[in-house]
Design a protein that fits this description.
heterotrimer; A alpha/beta (about 325); B alpha/beta (about 160); C alpha+beta (about 500); A: about 325 residues; alpha/beta; five-stranded parallel sheet; two-stranded antiparallel sheet; 13 helices; 9 strands; B: alpha/beta; about 35% helix; globular
């Protein structure tokens, strides 16, 4: 507790995009409830506390920390451990912290390939093949940059996590609902769910939220969405051959993308009971293919040109395999 | 220069209760030799094969995974082996994208009477995997990797 | 050498650290602005289908995903050699104008506002959005929340979601809008015009009407004479969504105007080993280091540079403000970096006017929002103006439209060299022999980068915070001489 009696709150971003911060701020006037009930002690995007200040805080003195972003480098991991020590409740907030999210797709490449691509790109003038060094001696002193890990990790792969809030980003109405719950808990009017629970989302799949009409599916062709002339706005997208990840993706967003005519790309992560998200999608997609002939099945599957990306778009770092061989093979380490 | 010791692969074999498991049984009772590298797991039907099992096998240290089921048209549950076939073909593509050679996942149809074939296919597969070499998938520190099987309690969470 | 480390930089998107080295006299020898992060989009997008890029590249930045979404959509259209229907163009630009409206509001009130409304060296406890609201009143605070809400609502209506829109595909969009939605957007636009005018008046009263602030804006140590970059339409007027990229020299001469496909003729990137981010520069002029002037390839890309690189605004009220801006500041181009804040508000007004213009176009509700691409996909470049600078997406694909190469030059990246220079110059001016380095001085160093709105706008309710900074001052042996601390 601080001098004014309000419990401490922190929000931090590791390898992230800032979308989770915006989603929190999009709760609008409800941010005043956060302000009334908490003292924000660390939130680099919004106010000027720094790492040294967090280090100086007593352990477990922060009641609630929302941690978004994946663990990409040594600084991300260091702060994850720091905030775990200082926080009573640590929430893996958003897809990056929960399952790696889009930057997790880097786990299909070796760090060497990533660096070579970025620092030798078509517009980069770099004849000496300079690349960032973790330590570099300048005339005035040594400059340090964090170490880039071969494999991007989720938050719970480096520290113990209390709760997970899925979504890229978590939708603001869900964030508002969770804040309401936490404030009720503070006032003794509710209890928190068991540690390890996924909060701010439903237990079922996006299909349950989706208003589109569903029939028994018999797909003999997968299509690319731009190749359809005005897809049917009422019929299930998967039934029209558009690869929609709804069947394995956790609900809670309100099926926003299918409502807007775009396929669900899976940003809310796996539904309850799904051990490996990609595996579940393999099952879902395979089950709707209308053929028993291996050659024809292969031909239909050619309509999904990037299966790893399609099925593990947000979830690779959090999947059973976690990373493709090129990412970990070169270093032999993980 | 001494010869490298032959690598002994770990193979997980998913067999279907009604045919291929019985074929394995038959091979056993007929004392047909086949390599001990294969650990058999019995499913009631090859259609029970969840791709998760295969991923768990590879991420858990297996070098190869063999699926056996009833011949097309002979499935005890009529059509489920076709469902497995579709899953498998798609799964192979996913594995290739992850850097796992699709040959490490193999499908063999075998009926209950084909004990000899079963033993032979096991042997062939072990040799194929030996040629490919060990997969050596890292054994990641686990953390709470299976958080997503927790069932949330709707009455406790306001959503 | 003595070293002052500011870590982390705060109130911007992403991570950053400033290292200030002092020589024996106590003057600044050099300053390094390091960016310690890299995620690798240019690599891991390879192998993905090009139609996913408006969705994947959203995740480069969750504050300006709309910018990446549009640049990606345009690049994907170019890959397929498809001309999208007029309704699709209108809808995309309308979404984009809604986005600009919310984004510029956010930056001004939560990031820039406190420095001007409260004062650069005001007590830290007051120098934040809440301090601003107390000074100007809760009614205005409510308006700011509403402005942000409206902007995001426009994005949601057309783009499907508030953050990370999902409706742009090669050939157009996945949906159109109804008449009811159109009306709603028009009303929000009209409200937005009033809000923008109010904000400009606020700036006029509180900032321009205060001599101390005016001196700060016009002062030399926040000034750099570099090239200016901004996208313009065929009449050389500012356009955020489409056009060609205009480059104007420090003396105002336009040296080029390039189409997206020509960008590699004009822009190259320089690599330093002490940071993950690259430094773009004008190829024809060349990389001469972190220096000003016509002979240095350093350029900046911000609202101010957009105004500098153009001949005016297409909407009447914004044009009036554009003229007043240059008259007040003594002509074009303007190089005082703090004037970016003012230029940003002129763009806020333009965005609101544009929302009304586009939402009242007769074709905006047509269902001709998509055309199926028929060309073989090969290669394409899409450029838009992100709020923080010109954004370039360049894709190469195979004949199925699967990406084989990706190159991105992102908004703030354009400004990495000028930001470094601005921070260095500010530090040199503010910290000299005998200076007691106070919190206020550090804030004035930070103001040098904050003007560029580096890739993030903190939204309405920046929460109260002091500026906890720890400065460790070491002597030549590395022993600690003094530690200045301020906690929150």
């Amino acid at each position: 507790m601080t001098a004014n009696g309000k419990p401490k709150f922190a929000m931090y971003w590791a390898a992230s995009c800032g979308g989770c911060e915006i989603a929190v701020l999009n709760i609008g006037e409800k941010i005043l409830d956060v302000d009334a009930n908490f003292e924000v002690v660390f939130w680099p995007v919004a106010m000027d506390a720094k790492y040294k200040d967090v280090e100086a805080m007593p352990d477990k003195s922060i009641l609630l920390t929302l941690f978004n972003g994946g663990i990409r480098n040594s600084e991300n991991e260091e702060i994850a451990h720091l905030l775990r020590r200082k926080s009573q409740i640590l929430v893996a907030f958003g897809s990056c912290a929960s399952e790696g999210c889009i930057p997790g797709l880097a786990n299909l490449s070796s760090p060497k390939d990533i660096f070579n691509t970025v620092y030798q790109s078509i517009s980069t003038n770099n004849p000496d093949k300079t690349q960032p060094q973790y330590q570099y001696q300048m005339p005035e002193g040594i400059l340090y940059t964090p170490e880039f890990y071969p494999v991007l990790k989720t938050l719970d792969q480096v520290v113990e996590v209390d709760y997970y809030m899925p979504g890229c980003p978590p939708e603001s109405h869900q964030i508002a609902a969770v804040i309401d719950l936490v404030i009720k808990v503070l006032h003794g009017e509710a209890t928190l769910p068991p540690p390890g629970t996924t909060i701010g989302a439903g237990p079922s799949t996006v299909c349950d939220d989706c208003a589109r009409q569903r029939n028994v599916k018999t797909i003999n062709k997968f299509v690319r969405i731009q190749d359809l002339d005005h897809p049917d706005p009422v019929l299930c997208l998967l039934e029209q051959g558009i690869p929609c990840n709804g069947p394995a993706t956790r609900n809670g967003c309100g099926a926003l993308c299918p409502s807007a005519g775009a396929q669900c790309i899976g940003c809310y992560g796996p539904a309850d009971g799904v051990l490996d998200y990609g595996a579940r999608l393999v099952t879902s997609f395979a089950s709707v293919i209308d053929s028993n002939d291996p050659e024809e099945i292969d031909r239909i599957l050619d309509g999904i040109p990037d299966p790893v990306g399609q099925f593990y778009r947000f979830n690779l770092a959090g999947s059973l395999l976690r990373a493709g061989k090129p990412a970990w093979k070169a270093n032999g380490s993980h | 220069m001494s010869e490298q010791p032959t690598f002994e692969p770990i193979i997980i074999g998913f067999t279907c209760n009604w045919c291929s498991y019985r074929a394995a049984d038959m091979a056993g009772t007929a004392r047909l030799k086949y390599p001990p590298n294969v650990r058999l797991i019995r499913l009631m039907c090859s259609g029970r094969l969840d791709p998760t099992f295969v991923l768990k096998a590879f991420s858990g240290g297996a070098d190869g995974v063999l699926i056996t089921g009833c011949h097309p048209g002979e499935c005890h549950y009529i059509e489920q082996n076709y469902k497995m076939l579709r899953r498998l073909l798609l799964l192979k593509r996913v594995l290739a994208g992850m850097g796992i050679e699709p040959e490490r996942l193999k499908l063999v149809w075998a009926s209950a009477a084909e004990g000899v074939k079963f033993a032979r296919e096991m042997t062939i597969f072990v040799e194929e995997i030996q040629k490919l070499g060990p997969l050596d998938w890292p054994s990641w520190d686990s953390g709470n990797a299976h958080h997503n099987v927790a069932v949330s309690h709707p009455e406790e969470v306001t959503v | 050498m003595q070293r002052i480390t500011i870590d982390p930089i705060t109130r911007l998107e992403g991570h950053g650290r400033i290292e200030i080295f002092l020589n024996e006299e106590g003057d600044v020898a050099n300053t390094y602005f390091q960016i310690p992060e890299l995620r690798g989009f240019e690599r891991f997008c390879v192998g993905r289908p090009v139609e996913e890029m408006p969705l994947l590249t959203n995740r480069i930045c969750g504050v300006c995903p709309e910018a990446h979404h549009m640049a990606a959509a345009k690049a994907a259209d170019a890959v397929y050699h498809v001309e999208i229907p007029r309704t699709a163009k209108l809808l995309r630009e309308l979404l984009y104008s809604g986005f600009y409206f919310t984004d510029h509001t956010t930056h001004f009130y939560a990031l820039a506002g406190p420095d001007f409304v409260m004062g650069p060296t005001a007590p830290v406890a007051e120098r934040n959005i809440l301090g601003v609201i107390h000074k100007v009143g809760l009614e205005i605070g409510g308006k700011v929340i509403q402005a942000r809400k409206y902007g995001h609502h426009i994005v949601e209506i057309i783009g499907g979601r508030k953050v990370h829109p999902c409706t742009s595909i090669p050939g157009g969009l996945t949906k159109g809008i109804t008449e009811e939605q159109r009306k709603e957007i028009e009303e929000m636009g009209r409200w937005g015009i009033e809000f923008a005018q109010f904000t400009l008046q606020l700036f006029n009263d509180i900032v321009l009407g205060n001599k101390a602030y005016l001196d700060l804006i016009l002062g030399d140590f926040y000034t750099h004479k570099t090239y200016s970059m901004g996208m313009v339409d065929e009449n050389n007027k500012v356009n955020f969504y489409d056009g060609k990229v205009s480059l104007v020299a420090p003396d105002g001469e336009r040296i080029g105007k390039y189409a997206p496909a020509e960008y590699t003729d004009w822009i190259a990137e320089h690599v330093e080993p002490w940071t993950y981010l690259k430094f773009p520069y004008i190829k024809k002029v060349g990389w001469k280091g972190f220096v000003d002037g016509k002979d240095s390839g350093v350029y900046f890309a911000t609202p101010l540079s957009r105004l500098n690189a153009s001949d005016g605004m297409t909407t009447p009220l914004a044009q009036e403000q554009y003229e007043k801006f240059y008259t007040t500041l003594g002509g074009k181009p303007v190089h005082q970096r703090l004037a970016i804040h003012w230029a940003r508000l002129i763009e806020l007004l333009y965005a609101a006017e544009r929302i009304v213009e586009l939402s009242t176009d007769p074709e905006i509700t047509s269902d001709n929002f998509h055309t199926v691409p028929t060309g073989i996909p090969t290669e394409g470049v899409g450029i838009v103006e992100a709020p923080r600078g010109t954004l370039t997406h360049h894709y190469k694909t195979d004949e199925r439209g699967i990406l084989t190469e990706v190159n991105l030059i992102v908004g703030t990246t354009n400004n990495y060299a000028p930001i470094s220079m601005s921070v260095n110059k500010a530090a040199r001016s503010l910290i000299t022999k005998g200076t007691v380095v106070t919190e206020g001085i550090l804030n004035m160093v930070e103001m040098a980068f904050r003007a560029y709105d580096p890739c993030f706008g903190c939204a309405t309710h920046s929460l109260p915070g002091q500026m906890p900074i720890e400065i460790t001052i070491r002597d030549a042996n590395g022993d600690i001489v003094d530690i200045l601390k301020q906690y929150c």
